[in-house]
Amino acid sequence: MACYVYILPSTAMAKKILVIEDDKDIRDTLVYVLEEQGYEVVSSEEAKILKSLDKIKPDLILLDNWLTEWKSDANGQQISKQLKSNPATSHIPIVIISAVSNIQEIAEAGMADDYLRKPFNLTDIIEIVKKYAV
Fold it and tell me: Does the structural domain 15-132 have CATH classification 3.40.50.2300?
């Protein structure tokens, strides 16, 4: 008697992406595109979600540089630098998202792994996520 085992794709095996973006349309687009690509996505309009990083355990963080909710004058660059300076979170790849012309310098100063310039196309999102969520 033959025994067959079928291994079906599991969402438990999917890489988890944390999207922090205050613009609802951009956030919803990112979530939709990433979920269509098979990623598990946790999203928030507020950086407060970072207090739950130990529970979320993301494989990648997509972080808007300018969060209107962030009251402490911190921006994505500063948040990224804090996360990268902390041994508990320094291993998590961070991609800063912004429309500013000097986004590359901002990402470098924030110790981010990469950056994504707004406006972006869907191919750019998919490529950059594949690069870091492996």
Answer: yes
